[in-house]
Amino acid sequence: MSDRIIYMDYNSTTPVDEEVLREMLPYFSVKFGNASSKHHYGSEAAAAVENARKKIAALIGVSSDEIVFTSGATESVNLAIKGIAESNFRDGCNIVTTEIEHPAVLDTCKSLSESGVEIRYAKPDRYGIVGAEEIEELTDGNTILVSVMTANNETGAIQHIPEIGTICAKKNVLFHTDAVQAYGKIPINAKEFGIDLMSFSSHKIYGPKGVGALYINKSNPKAKAAPQMHGGGHEKGLRSGTLNVPGIAGFGKAAEIAGIRMYDDFVKQTVLRDRLIENLLMRLPHVYLNGHRSKRIPNTANICFEGVPAVTLMNSIKDVAVSAGSACASATLQDSHVLKSMGLPAERIRSSVRFSIGRMTTNEEIDEVMEKFIYTVKKLRN
After folding, report:
1. Mean per-residue pLDDT for 34-42?
2. 308 to each of 7, 347, 349, how far by Cα in Å?
3. Residue 1 lies in a domain
4. Both 272 and 184 in a single domain?
5. Are residues 231 and 267 in the same domain?
6. Parallel/antiparallel/unpaired status of strands 300-305 and 197-201
7. Are residues 239 and 286 in the same domain?
């Protein structure tokens, strides 16, 4: 067995693809202009930004002028939710979301609740999926926005996005989705799905950290987000600040590669993921899969090893990089709010580990991780 650390935490972040890095390098030193400058260097940088914008938009079937660049998905979420709340605020208004959203959405909504916006939370079923009918029941004439993630970062469960989009269109309510874990992994057509705002990030698709994007549907007159950052009028006034040209160029290349590789990556990762799940569940007693068996993104498996705390298990297998919950929540050592909302007891939540595989994961690594976990769980239980 190898002494290297096997990385199985791709939902947390991904390594930068070599092609992406090559695309970025010239914009650090040779083509280093500010994309807002009106000279050759600026024009060169601006062209790179617009080229990337087209590639990023193409992956979700929208126009390039509907893409706003940000520092990452958290900022995109804040711009979407706070921006819409600010521009559409009225007495008695509400936002509908779910209990299983990423902290970027939940904390933003909590902040708005302190400013007088009512937040209504839909609960998932035991498989981690929120019913479209529950979203419809929570939505009324005072709803200014519905925000439901496309795929959950902890369980991988895919939500009923097209159905929710149809409901929102019927009720004339704006629809935002946090698509961080889905963008580039599964096909998404924002127009066909009825999505008005979509947040996503570069570093989840083998691009650099520190750059994200927000799609805003220009054909919906209600989708006017109030800027949350001021000082220069960049990105049509929606997000002021000098553009991260190397990061954006890398993001564009990562999106292009994701579009080309999506089918092959999907098939390969689904096979590897299912082998991991089936072997762990077959060869160990009292092991359970958290979340829906098939309605999930191809790379994610959240597994409970009953009677073995996840922290103990992870500390015993330090040469495999996995996660207990999401990367953002792991530092707090709190029980997963996602698994709790699904109705799992505290003991089972604390014994759950998230495996998220990626483009570089091999058959040999799956075998090695399987054997390590089976051996260690048996040892700790005894």
Report:
1. 93
2. 21, 9, 11
3. no
4. no
5. no
6. unpaired
7. no
As a whole number of angstroms, the distance between CA 92 and CA 282 comes to 52
What is the rounded average pLDDT of the residues 159-185? 98
Cβ distance 230 to 237 under 8 Å? Answer: no
Mean pLDDT of the chain: 95
CB atoms within 10 A of CB 39: 9
33: number of CA atoms within 13 Å, CB side? 16
pLDDT digits (tens, 9 = 90+) for 126-137: 999 999 999 999
In this prediction, residue 235 has a pLDDT band, given cuts at 50, 70 and 90, of confident
Note the pLDDT of residue 1: 44
CB within 8 A of 285, min separation 6: which ones? none
The percent of residues above 70 in pLDDT, for the chain, comes to: 97
**Residue 295 domain-assigned (yes or no):** yes
User: Which domain covers residue 84, as residue numbers?
Assistant: 18-257
Residue 205: which of 161, 262, 267 has the closest Cα?
262
Q: Count the domains in the chain.
A: 2
Cα–Cα dist 14/97, whole Å: 27
Check 93, 109, 168, 328 and give the catalytic one.
328
Known catalytic residue: 168?
no
Domain of residue 217, CATH code = 3.40.640.10
Q: Taking the model in full, what pTM does it have?
A: 0.95
Are 111 and 219 in a shared domain? yes
Residue 132 lies in a domain: yes
Same domain, residue pair 172 and 26: yes
**CATH number of the domain bearing residue 341:** 3.90.1150.10
Mean pLDDT of 306-314: 96
Cα 15 from Cα 31, distance rounded (Å): 24
pLDDT in tens, 256-291: 999 999 999 999 999 999 999 999 999 999 999 999
